């Protein structure tokens, strides 16, 4: 869904029930993240960039993007997780770093009563028919190509140490984290030939 459509839906449909906050795993652990406030300010603004200085909005940086707010909590079918992801990307583009104000976090007293049942979540996602499926055989898949992103979540992108045309072995180092950066070294999950090393390393088995 395009950003402008998400903005229009938030303006028209968000009822500020705060269910997204009440079930937010980060909020329940005592963090200051409150998705319903972010939705409110996102809906009230005329431009996404104008809300980035808001202290409530800055809390998106600790969102784990688990999706409970979007796939389970919201009764209006809105996209709090996608909006959080969008705002996080904007902060990253501006090289903004999250500054924690709290010295300690205390879990919400209602946390034990607000945990989401995996069975109910499966039903909400339309996957209940598979919930009790028993797997009685193991099948090993051998894909023809494997694409491995050089940026693992929010860390710094790793630098490829291989180039197109190189033959690599399984578990071989194919990209390394830059010195002084928070990130991860990346190893080949399969043996094969390197096809591409731009935003992702593509291996052909």
- Structurally, the number of domains stands at 2
The total beta strand count reads: 7
Describe the strand arrangement of the main beta sheet, using strand numbers.
Answer: 1-7-6-3
Per DSSP, the total helix count is 8
Categorize the overall geometry.
globular
Rg, please?
21 Å
Q: What's the helical proportion of residues?
A: 25-40%
The main β sheet shows up as: 4 strands, antiparallel
Write the element-wise H/E pattern from the N-terminal end onward: HHHHHHHHEEEEEEE
End-to-end separation: 35 Å
Uncertain residue ranges: none
Structural class: alpha+beta
The chain-level mean pLDDT equals 89
Beta-strand portion reads 5-15%
Q: Determine the oligomeric state from the structure.
A: single chain
């Amino acid at each position: 869904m395009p950003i402008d459509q998400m903005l229009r839906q938030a303006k028209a449909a968000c009822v500020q029930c705060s269910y997204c906050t009440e079930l937010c795993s980060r909020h329940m652990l005592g963090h200051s993240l409150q998705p319903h406030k972010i939705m409110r300010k996102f809906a009230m603004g005329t431009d996404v960039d104008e809300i980035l200085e808001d202290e409530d909005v800055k809390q998106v940086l600790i969102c784990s993007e688990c999706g409970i707010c979007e796939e389970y909590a919201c009764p209006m079918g809105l996209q709090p997780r996608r909006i959080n992801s969008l705002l996080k990307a904007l902060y990253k583009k501006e090289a903004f770093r999250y500054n924690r104000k709290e010295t300690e976090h205390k879990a919400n007293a209602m946390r034990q009563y607000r945990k989401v049942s995996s069975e109910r979540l499966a039903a909400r996602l339309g996957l209940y028919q598979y919930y009790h499926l028993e797997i009685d055989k193991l099948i090993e898949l051998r894909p023809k190509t494997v694409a491995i992103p050089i940026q693992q979540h929010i860390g710094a992108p790793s630098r490829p140490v291989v180039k197109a045309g190189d033959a690599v072995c399984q578990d071989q180092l194919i990209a390394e984290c830059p010195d002084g950066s928070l990130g991860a070294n990346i190893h080949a999950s399969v043996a094969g030939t390197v096809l591409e090393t731009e935003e992702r390393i593509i291996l052909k088995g």
